[in-house]
Every structure is written in structure tokens, then in C-alpha cells.
Amino acid sequence: MNPVGMLLIAGLGTGLVLIWFFLFKKTKTPAMKPFLPVWREYLTKEVQFYRNLSSDERLQFESRIQSFLQAVIITGVGTDINDIDRLLVATSAVIPVFHFSNWTRYPNLDEVLIYPNAFREGDYATQGEDRNVLGMVGWGPMNRKIIFSRPSLHRGFEQEGLTNTGIHEFIHLIDKADGATDGVPEYLLEKQYVLPWIQLIYQEIEAIRSGKSDIPPYGATNQTEFFAVAGTYFFQQPHRFASEHPELFQMLEDIFNSTLNKHQK
Ligand SMILES: [Zn+2]
Q1: What is the pLDDT of residues 99-114, one digit of tens each?
Q2: Fewer CB near the terminus (10 Å): N or C of the chain?
Q3: Which protein residues have their CB within 5 A of the ion that is ligand 1?
Q4: Residue ranges of the chain with pLDDT lower than 70?
Q5: Structural domain boundaries of the chain?
Q6: Ligand 1: centre distance to CA 250 (Å)
Q7: Dist. CA 119 → ligand 1 center (Å)
Q8: CA 168 / ligand 1 centre spacing (Å)
Q9: Superfamily of domain 37-263, CATH level 4
Q10: pLDDT (tens digit, 9 = 90+) per residue, 204-242?
Q11: Pair 233, 254: CB distance under 8 Å
């Protein structure tokens, strides 16, 4: 065979190998990781939402955790991450949508980035001055990503206070799913409830500003933050929220379709 023929055959061979490689790569789905005993231990110890579920619901919760981890990439940036970090991201993602039985995945999320500490808005620097962001839903080049400060992600579960950075950011993502991050999750709220919801937000923001509410002050920033802050409190301390804010509790129950009442002790 002449050299040109040999080159053609070699080229064709390489092309076929490459085509096979990409086809194979595209169709390969990662195997579902088993639910780790250390995850169950952590959830039982640290996550009140999980403890309040029935045993059947706990299994569903665990299966939703696994589906989330299969669909979304979690990357440590300048920090090593472990199985508990992954669990906390997935737990924050599953809690707010747990009662939506037809919610299979976040349509607007591909990747979660975990930073070693608080970062600066704008350039995401993790060193230097003015680093006060603990978590955010990305936009622009960071669209379809969420970023967390690792210690803050842990603190939300370990302190079981009124705030939780993980849940907070995923509520923003739910809010964003209808196209506008505006504190009004239109597709979860039937049309006739939109106006009463906005009125309730402004009434509560006023109460926070005049010191008559235990909703964390950051909730008074605007209606977007109000939804994330009040929603997080609702999931973190449901019984206290129900007694302090009965009207708001009912509205958030309608929004998140919670079955909390079935499990009240
Ligand atoms: Zn926020």
C-alpha cells in the first residue's frame, strides 16, 4: 500500500476510535452510590426536618438525596470536600421541595461550588477584605451554579437556629425557577394568592423593621430575601414559626405543601 493509503487508513481508524469514545462517554451514567450509614447517622443527629419524618418518608428522603447527588456536580474550590459536605448540599436541596412529589430535579442547576470560607461579591475572592458572602445563587458566567462557604453550610445544620445558608440558597433557586427571583414563586402559588402573599410580605417586613418580629433582620432587605429568610425559619423551626406567625405559616404551608401537621408531637 502506498504511504497516502496507509495514512488514510490510520486517520480513519483514529476517527472511529474517537467517535466510539465520545458516544460511550455520553451514554455512560454514573452508578448510584449506596446511601452511606454515616449519612443516616448525621441526618438523625443534626437534621430536625429528617427526624420529624415517618420511617417511610425517611426512605423517600434518602432516595431524593441520592437522585440529587447523581444529577448535580459538587466541586470543592480551594478546599477538599467529603461525603458529609455532599450530604449537606443535597439535604439543603431536598428539604424545600420534599413535599413536591413530582419534582425530580432543579431545572436551573448543574453544579454546586464549595469555597473554603466567606467570599467577596463580584470576584468571589476567598482572601482579603470585604468577604461577607456565605452563599449565593450564581448569575452571569456563574449561572446554573450555587456557591457555598463550607463552614457556613455546616453551621446551618449544626446550630439548628433560625438561619441555614444551604436551605436559604435553594429557596432562592426555587424562586428563580419561574424566571424572576422576586420572592413570589408564581408556579407554586395559585394566582389568587399572589397579591395576598405580597401584602403579607410587606406587613411582615414592616414588623421586622419596627422590632416586632423574630424573623431575622436580613429578611427585611427586600421581598426576595424575605421569602428565603422566612422560608428557612419555617423549615428550621416549624413549631416556633407556627406559633409566632400563624398567618405566614399557613401561607408557607400552602406554598411548600408541607405535611408537618401529621407529624406534630
Ligand atoms: Zn439571600
Answers
A1: 887 787 899 999 999 9
A2: C
A3: 225, 228
A4: 1-32, 257-265
A5: 37-263
A6: 22
A7: 14
A8: 6
A9: Collagenase (Catalytic Domain) (3.40.390.10)
A10: 999 999 999 999 999 999 999 999 999 999 999 999 999
A11: no
